TrEMBL record:
Span of the signal peptide: none
Superkingdom classification of source: Bacteria
Residues of the Phospholipid/glycerol acyltransferase domain: 94-215
A molecular-function term among this protein's GO annotations: acyltransferase activity
Pfam families per UniProt: Acyltransferase (PF01553)
Protein name: 1-acyl-sn-glycerol-3-phosphate acyltransferase
Assigned keywords, A-Z: Acyltransferase, Transferase
Amino acid sequence: MIIFPNRDAVIENIKQNLANQDYNKKVEIDDPHMTSEESMRRINEYFRKRNTLLGKVKNICARTIYQAVTWAENTNTQIVGMDNLKALDPKQGAIITSNHFNPLENTIIRRFVQRTKTHKRLFIISQDTNLGMKGLVGFLMNNLDIIPLGKSINYLGKTFPDAVKHVIDKGNYILIYPEEEMWFNYRKPRPFKRGTYYYAAKVNAPIISCFVELRDLPSFEPNSDDKIHRVQAILHVLPVIFPDSNKSVKENSYAMMKQDYQQKKDAYEKAYGKSLTYDFSPEDIAGWVGPDKQK
C-alpha cells in the first residue's frame, strides 16, 4: 500500500486554488523542483538511455513491475462504455485524456488499454520533475514508457511533438492529462489547458475521452491514515473525438477541447447526480474524512 502523507495540507491548497480560480495550479507540497537547465539535462539523459541495451532491459523490468501494480490497484475497478471504441480504427494510434487525481490513476487507464486487446503500448506524458523522484517511483518514472513534458520552448516546439508523432504513427496510445497538475482524489473535471488538443490536432490523432468516477467504499479501508479511505474507480469511456479535416490545427484544438470538457462534465453530472460547480465541499475529495467528520 502506498502512503500519501500531508493530505490535509494538499486539500487546503485545493480549496485555496478553487477560491482563486486557479484550476491547473500545483497543490502537492513535496514534489521535486528543478531548474530549466536541470530539466533539459534529465530529459536528454532519459532519451539517451532509452536507446541503450541497458535502457531497454530496464524498460522491460519497469513495465513488468507496473503490470503487477496495475493488477493490484484495479481488482475492484469497473470499466463502462467500451462500445464507444467501435468508431476507432483498432490499428490507429490515439491520445487518451482523463481526469488527474492520483499518482496511481494511470493504472486505471492501463487496465482499460489491456481490456481493448489491441496490444497497444501506453505512453504517458509526465512532468519533467517526475524524473527527479527517488526510490522505486523514481525507477519507474525514469524507465516506463513516458514522454517528459519540459519547459523549454525549443523542446516543446520540436522534440516533444516529434516524440508524440512517433508514438501515434506506430499505432500506440498516449495518456495526457489536460488538467495538468494532479489534485488528490478530486472528483470534478477541471477546465483544461489547450496543449493536449493542439498536439492531437497537429498529429491528426483522435481523442479517447475518459472520465473516472470515484465511489466511497462502504467499509473502512485506510489508504494513508484514518482521514483517507480507499475508493472504487469506475472508468467511463466516452465517445471518441476526431479532428475535422476541414479545420485548421488551431480550430481543431479549440473544438476538441470544448467537446472533451463537455463530455467529461456530462459524465460527472450523470455519475454524481449534481450540476458541476467549483464551489468546494468535503465530498469533492473522494475517501476524505473532512473536518466535520473527524470529531
